[in-house]
Design a protein that fits this description.
By secondary structure, the protein is an alpha+beta fold. It has 4 domains: about 90 residues, Immunoglobulins (Immunoglobulin-like, Sandwich), CATH 2.60.40.10; about 90 residues, Immunoglobulin-like (Sandwich); about 100 residues, Immunoglobulins (Immunoglobulin-like), CATH 2.60.40; about 110 residues. Helix content is about 25%, strand content about 40%. The chain is built from 5 helices and 27 strands. The chain has a 5-stranded mixed beta sheet. The protein has a 5-stranded mixed beta sheet with strand order 10-17-16-12-13. A 5-stranded mixed beta sheet has the order 19-25-24-21-22. Helix 4 packs antiparallel against helix 5. The longest helix is centred in the last third of the chain and has 55 residues. The protein is rod-shaped, with a radius of gyration of 41 Å.
Length: about 425
Amino acid sequence: MRRSTYGDFSDNQLGGDDILTGAEASAGITLTGTAEAGAQVAVELQGNTRFVTATAGGTWSADFESSEITSGTYTDSATVTVIDAALNSSTSSYTFDVDTEVSNFSRSTISTGADNVLNEAEAQLGLTVTGSVEAGSSVMVMFGAAGPYAASVSGGTWSLTIPTADIPPGEALATMTAIATDQYGNTSAPYSEVVDVDRVVTSFAPTGGRGTMAVDGFLNAEEFAHGLTLTGTGEAYSSVVIRLSNGAEQSVVVGSDGRWEAVFDSASLPSGEVTLGVAVTATDLAGNVSTFTDSLVIDTIAPPAPDVVGFSKNLIGVDGIRTVATEELAAQRSAGTADDSQRRIVALERKIATLLARETEEASVLRQTSANLRMFTEQYKLGRRPLMELVGMYETYARLERDHAALKYDRTLLRLQIAQLRGQLVDGRRM
């Protein structure tokens, strides 16, 4: 700071640190100084000039509006020119720093992969976000309704990992908002980004087909001759791999209608009486993987032929053939029928257990999605979320609710099949 015989700037300008912050600039600033009593004083700042008269005490002050100060980070100066009664003049300057913003604040990376979708495998590691920011700043982050989180700042870099527990399950759009504050108290404009979360393969299930687990769990000789057709539903354009326990394998893609089908010809199937395991794995476009397993019984062996014990003749020829089932043969046949029914019942009960497990899992996802829908609705009412995001969440909830109801319906059909095999009506009476 240069001094003059006739006038100068006072010490301790701008809070005493010679730094003009955003808070100070927003309120306007007052520059002060000394000069010969009654002298005329011209104070210039960023092209704006104030003309004042020094007081009898030899002081002056000049006010500048916030609109007259350019925002940013730079070095500037103000000048004061003093003219006394004898028309003597002198000029002095005051150099200071302007810092009204958080500089270099941005997001650099986010761990959503090349597809910009956070899948289940990625979510299990948490959502990691990094960026740049003015050294000495702090960064606070909100993720959906979770947070705020304090990011770690080192030099000019900030980073944060949002824990798995705070990432929405299922499919959702979560808004991430970050705000930076520098060492002078300047606050950045919020940085907002919508993160596409997709942690599940939706609508993945068997729906049936000739001789499949979804029908009766058995493939007889007639069905075997036509091969095995497996059908199901899944997320559109997901890849589905069907593996049989005998080594046969098929790969298909779920159609735009959400359906898939795989056909195994009889040459690829084991014949005789054998239990065939089936494992079906779906991978959606986001990289999520879902698998269900089941089994079916192949029975291509015909029952024993009846024993011919005699025949009779008339004038035309043979008029009748008599067969008899010995007590042993009758017992075998009866036991075979009972065993067949029991195998079917066991297979169906196994399917019911699988459906119950899926119901429990999907019920949890449905509850979370319902909570997300309520949150999205409130955020939309407050103007914090666009209509399309709310519509997308509603469609997701409706689809999950429909699929959950379908599981209950499928389970009821399987129980009816068991009742039929046991010779019972639904209320437990014998047929």
